[in-house]
Fold:
Amino acid sequence: MPSARDHGATGRRGRTDGAAHPRPTADARPTPPHATGHLRNRQLRSTRLVTATAAALVCLGALSACGPDNDGGQDAGKTAAPAPSATAAPAGTATGAPATGTGKPAGDGGTGGAAKGIPAKAWMDTKSIPMDETYHYAPLAANAKPGTGPVQFKGMELCHAAVAKDDEWMFTGTASAKASVGFGGDRWTAQQTLLFEGDPTHSSGTKQATNLTDGHLTDALKGCAKTAPGATVKVDSADGAPYFAAVLTVPQADGTTVTLHEYVVTDGGTVSELSVWATTKGGAQPKDAWKAPEDKYVGTGMTAPMCDALPGCDGH
Structure:
């Protein structure tokens, strides 16, 4: 029989090798019958969930692999369309640098006409504008604003020559726009105005309307003194020239005087006006002395891009 000392040697752990018994875990206890049933139910639900998830993934893979674009049809290889770029240019202001904003003319690159507006390439190169040697004007196309309703030519505006209600159709056309660059005040500002009546090769009436509009504009300039008392007009272009050129001084209601150099060309179904003016007070002269190419070169600078961009124009 073991002695009490022997019992003391083994201690309460009941081991003679000095190693501790592992602490019983919860799993070491016998599982009651009702707990076994709950465990089986949880295992069954987990199995069903895994099966359903696997089935959903298989279906999704099948849809991706067998979609309508996988059959080599007409939509195969398509990519997302690029986001449209901002097209408008800047609204025109009488500043030396291009204005900011939206107003860029909707150009189609040249020969498609002006159904969506005046093409950007229809505007004259600023190097052909008088005073550009001094001012280095910003590009006209970048400062163009499309017109709505009857166009207002600058020369007629300064001469206070209103368009009669019955004649508004001639000044509306298919598309119009104007672009201003410069500094304002007693420094020279330049503005080109373009009116596209349409392609005259498809309608003789379009050509007639273009010629009538040109006639109304040049007659208003020649008769400026009739509508603006005190105005003076000096026509520089010869009869039959392919351009109209004149210099006008026009007193204004506020006591200032506008000195205006006016150019007009007409070709095909388009009328183009270039106005370069400065406003002074008390009989003073514009701040910067006038510098300009010969009138015929200004006229050619207006006609060439216009005829390159708009249909029905032969450039002569």
